[in-house]
Amino acid sequence: MKRYRTLPVVFGILRVHAFISVQTPTGDGALKPLTQFDTAFYVQSLLELHRQVCPVDKYSNLVVLRLSDEALLQTILPHIISDQTYKKTVSDRAELFHTYANDFYSCNFIPIDSLVHLNISAPLANTTRSIFFYPRWILKEFQHPSDVSFLISLRKGYAVLYDYGNTMEIQHWNFLSNQTLTIDPRAKAVPPPGELRDLHGYEIVLASPPFTRPAMVFDVYFLQQIVSRRNATLAIEDEITPRTTIVVVFSPKEYITPYYLPAFGRNFMAVQVPRAKPKPIFSILIDPFDRYTWYAFFLLILAMAITLSWFGAQLGTHHIVEIVLELIMMSLSGASRAYGGAFENRLITMFSLMGIVLISSYQSLVISYMSLIRYYPEINTYEDIQKKCLFENNAIVRDFEVRKYEPGHFPGYDRVCYLEHGRDNEHVSMSMFAVLANHSDDWIRFRMENYRYAGRKFYEYIQCYFVFPPNLRDLFQFYLQAIFESGIYDYFYNNKIRPKWHFERETFIKRTINLGDLTVLWYAYGFGTILSVLCYIAEITYFKLSQYKVVKK
Question: Where in the sequence is the domain holding 322, given as residue range(s)?
Answer without folding.
Answer: 287-355
